[in-house]
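User: For my dataset I need records formatted as: sequence, then structure tokens, nothing else. Please produce one.
Assistant:
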Amino acid sequence: MASCTTNTVNLDNAQRVDIICRRGDTFSIEVTFTGPTGVPLDLTTYTWKMEVSENETAANPVLDYNDFSYDGNSTGTLFVTATSSTMLTIAAGTYIYGLQSTNSGVVKTWLYGTFSVKEDVIE
């Protein structure tokens, strides 16, 4: 009979990255992803989703994946953007977000954290 020496297997390797942005400004973030050996991933075959919610149990996100555009390239860099008009639809405050990909049927959460929106003084 085989024995197991561990009681836990942690499959959650998402990284916490807190985001601070300004309401009404164009949202743009650039992230580079590498594989286990440090080689940049080819992101051209990935589908991306980012959602911003009031909390983990919120029924509807305040910004859903369609509010963002995604451009992943063959050198591992992903650009996530939202227009200034989209960013006007979210009230100043602190939310949570997650960034997830699908590639060849595999779904993976890469980033998560707080999504803080500062009030803009120019509307």
